[in-house]
Amino acid sequence: MKTLAGWNTKVLAGTLLFLAGTACAGEPAQKSEAHSFKVRGNISYRCYSGSGAQKNTDSRTKAPCDSQTRKQTLVDEVIQIEIKAEPNPDDSKDLYGEWKKDIDFEGRKFSAFLSLAKSVDTPSKTPYRLMVDANDDEPGHRRTTTSADARQVKDFNILTLRYASKEQPEEIEYDLTIEAVQ
Fold it and tell me: In the chain, which stretches have pLDDT less than 50?
């Protein structure tokens, strides 16, 4: 009887472990994914000095304007975004990841933001959504966001956002380009 009782205990314990594992597992957890993007941000700055005795000054830095154009690459790198399931109250299996960079140039702040999401909860022909956000604080806070949907990450076209400040003493152009790396 001792052997039989021990066997029953082992069978019962094994069955309980199997059932508990099955109940806890539910749907298999969505694995994280990593995707690479080429990010390039360029800035062109020119402050017109004006004519006559009165010379213009930069409205932000108060430095005298010299009518010279300065260009700088603010960001030029291949970044990797890992998308993964984020804890949330709805127990969603959707994947999300983001990247952000802030840059100071000529007394102004520029930023580049990129997010990638994959819809898992709701079946879709285009489950990936790429969102690109660029903003600066010149002449006031300006922000532009665009997004694109695709079947696969490699299907995204190149996205470019451009800001231009014209008809001011300072002419500032900010270009941000995002491209999926194959």
Answer: 1-28
Which H or E element spans position 23? helix 2-25
pLDDT tens readout for residues 134-155: 887 766 667 788 899 999 999 9
DSSP of 52-65: SS---B-TTT-PBP
Contact call for residues 111 and 100 (beta carbons, < 8 A): yes
43 lies in the same domain as 12: no
CA dihedral over 57, 59, 60, 66, signed as positive or negative: negative
Range of the domain at 49: 33-180
3-state secondary structure (DSSP) of residue 90? coil
Give yes or no: residues 20 and 64 share one domain.
no
Say which residue the tokens 């270009």 belong to.
175
Residue pLDDT, tens place only, 111-134: 899 999 999 888 889 999 999 988
Sheet holding 170-180, edge to edge: 142-150, 128-136, 108-118, 95-105, 69-85, 33-47, 170-180, 159-165
Residues 25 and 58 grouped into a single domain: no
What distance in Å separates the CA atoms of residue 115 and residue 130, rounded to the nearest whole number? 6
Distance CA 87, CA 94 (A): 10
